[in-house]
Hints:
Beta-galactosidase, Chain A, domain 5; 9-stranded antiparallel β-sheet; alpha+beta; 639 residues; disordered N terminus; elongated; 3 domains; 26 strands
Amino acid sequence: MAAVGAATVVMSLLASPAAGTRGEPTPRVDATESGSATPTPTETGTPTPTPTATPTDTPAAAPVPPPLPTELGSWCSTLFPVQPTSIERTKAQALMGGKATMSQGGTYTLTEHPNWKPQGATDTSGDRHVHSLNWALPLLYRGVHKQVPALVDRFRQLMHEWIEDHRGKRSYWVNASIYGGLRTQTLVCAAQTLNDSVITEAALKDAEIMVARNWATREVATGTNNTDLIRQTGALAAFCWSGDTARRDRAWANLASVARGVVQEDGSDVEGSPGYAVYIENLLSDVEAAAATCGLPADPIPQLRGRLYDFVAQAIRPDFRLESLGDTINESLRGAFGAGDARADWVRSAGTTGTPPAPIYTSYLGGYVFGRAGWQPQPGGADTYYSLRFSSARPATPHAHDDGLGLTLYSRGVEWIGDPGPYRYENSSSLRWYMKSRTAHSSVTVSNSGRTKARGVQQVYARSDWATGGNDYTCLRDATWGAVTVTRCTTYIRSVDALVVVDYIDAARLKGKRKPVRVLTQRWQLPPVQSATNTGEVLTLASGDKSLDIVKSGEGGWNARTARKGSSIGWFTEAWGVKAPGAVLSRTVRLPKARSSSVLVTVFVPRNPGESAPAVIGPDGVTISRNGLTITTPLPAPG
Length: 639
């Protein structure tokens, strides 16, 4: 690690292509709508006895194969909407060739009779999704659409083999919400289409497992996440199709409770990931479709979907990409997200249709603060956008990262301070675990200080004078570091387009004989395609012809580390499972054994080519000059 001193130092950050795209957080397979086969949920197969052959008997006739269905069941189109013919054909051909795509989880190799065990070409998610079975549906769809018996037979064979291989005790992940839920939905579609007693029995058995958790005893099922929506949707489909009214009603009540649990009152998600808010909206659309197929009123699902649109719009940067927070890929919205809602139309169409929300500063119960210069920046004008993270009002879920106090900053068309993203769902990946950790975010860590995450990062205040062109003020307190409390307060100065960040460090006296040295480290994660130079207390980042000045006061000199092979530090997610090299800018403060207080001030000033905007940190606050205007703003403080 090379320290950045007063002399000019050049830090070259490795270039990387623009971020790619990814699929949905859970794999989906689509179908075409058609009529329903008659359900036979209570039927058990009874083979016809075959007479014992004798030398004089006529040879027994070959078994008559079951008739090929001419149309898919109606629940298929409800649960797995249509895909283009070319995609359906390609997937079916791949499956017949022994390759099953587990969406983001990789490619699973199918033998004649799979053993359903983890493989090298799939990650943790893909290994578990083999039990979802929805990956096999293209065989059924293509076989029915084109009347190809071999495709339908292979699909039926895979279903029967999985069912037979899992009649005994199952491991936890086989019946876990997302895998069990998708499998239940797949088996309902298959049973309805094929009128197959073995598959029907399996679908209803899984549905009973899925509906067992009685969320309906609470109006709001806290502690749930998106997978519980999938679980209950599968149960609803099975019991609605089979005519089990009592279990159907329980599944619907569970769905309503879980839906209220995954969408906060203000529309933010409980996942700590805006990408999952988009996905939850998609799942709620599926729930509405299931209610319609079942003949049930959909309340409160449409209202909950509506709450999400303001939040998702606020999580969109000026380049119309989602901010990469938690398990979110930095990408534009696609598909039919919120079609017909003005706010969703605005962000999905990159501002060509619809209308953005009114506020340009917001704070959400999901633990988010978003601020921006405005919704429609003028050419060459300020397009600054930033985010801050604190603890959700509801329990954390697996898709949130340890990113309390974390800050991101976008301006002049450049992501200057970023979030590393999710990488991929691979539990054996050290990079995945690192990217979820506090160290990988633009926040602070404290060494040799017992940590209690349960204390969380709390919002002290969030207010703004944006309606009159004034500033944004935010203050967050991190009490997770034992005897050391860090309070981060920020001011976005709208008139001169600059962001002031102040970290207040309060360290209690160490007790006992053992008194290890405590070190606080402040980090700023620098995305790919940047370079940096510094003179004195001013460090300037550059990307193309745009610049960001970083001015600091307080202890510690700058240190910069670029991403390198063999280390997790400085890497970003370029696309799902693809890493891109960035860098980390940091400074440290040694905390004495006695009680102490420290203040670290960091000012971010974005600039256009040839523009000057000097910033000076003084006893009265921060003084910034831009375009002939000089503004002195007091430092934000907890009080």
